[in-house]
Design brief:
By secondary structure, the protein is an alpha+beta fold. It contains two helices and ten strands. It has helices spanning 13-37, 56-82, and strands at 6-10, 86-90, 95-96, 100-106, 117-129, 139-152, 162-167, 179-195, 198-206, 208-209. The strands form three sheets. A four-stranded antiparallel beta sheet has the order 1-2-4-7, with no helix packed on it.
């Protein structure tokens, strides 16, 4: 594999961590802004004449903010503990449906794991769905169209790469009744391992073309 042309793709975990931080801050700003602008009292007694049901909106926003902040802290901890991994893709460009994806994931530090590495390839389609009122484009959701897993154990240091290969299938939309259309199709590659009681993980985007022929 060392003689093949490699395309290097960086771990997207730091980007996801930054996105989680931004989402958390926006939710907090939104919650505080609603309370300040509408002068909402923190009153949850539904029998009180001053009770405003809208007070639950800032509460939900704060709950989302906490959830996003926890994810961001966890992503930051994983990055500091294990460093940033790199996906080296054989071929140097992109892979098409019907072909085989080959490559290796190179870790920043040597990781000792007794159970090996779990590498997962997913095809995720973001679809537009009808809402309860049947409005077009009223909501979007992610649907996993394909998932393949491979358990990899290597005798070499993972800083030299964890090798893998996956066949890329031709994926079609499931076509359930509520789906109005496809907004986006993306392929991801995830690696996970238990290292000294901690969870190592990294996520990469995979450049796949012609994944959802209609």
């Amino acid at each position: 594999m060392t003689s093949d042309i490699m395309r290097r793709i960086d771990d997207s975990t730091p980007f996801q961590t930054d996105t989680n931080w931004i989402s958390a801050v926006l939710c907090v700003v939104g919650a505080v802004g609603m309370v300040w602008w509408f002068e909402m009292p923190f009153l949850f007694d539904v029998d009180s004449p001053d009770f405003n049901p809208a007070i639950f909106v800032p509460v939900v926003l704060l709950g989302i903010a906490v959830h996003q902040a926890v994810k961001a802290v966890r992503g930051l901890a994983v990055g500091r503990r294990f460093g940033r991994s790199t996906f080296e893709m054989v071929g140097g460009g992109q892979v098409s449906a019907g072909e085989t994806l080959r490559g290796r994931i190179v870790t920043a530090r040597d990781l000792e794991t007794k159970s090996g590495f779990l590498v997962t390839l997913r095809c995720i389609e973001q679809v537009r769905c009808s809402g309860s009122s049947g409005a077009v484009g009223s909501r979007r959701k992610d649907v996993v169209r394909h998932e393949s897993c491979s358990k990899v154990e290597t005798s070499e240091s993972c800083t030299r790469g964890v090798p893998f290969e996956f066949a890329i299938p031709r994926v079609k939309c499931a076509g359930d009744g509520e789906v109005l259309g496809s907004a986006e199709v993306r392929w991801t590659l995830e690696i996970q391992a238990d290292v000294a009681g901690e969870r190592y993980e990294a996520l990469f985007g995979v450049p796949v073309v012609a994944t959802s022929p209609r």
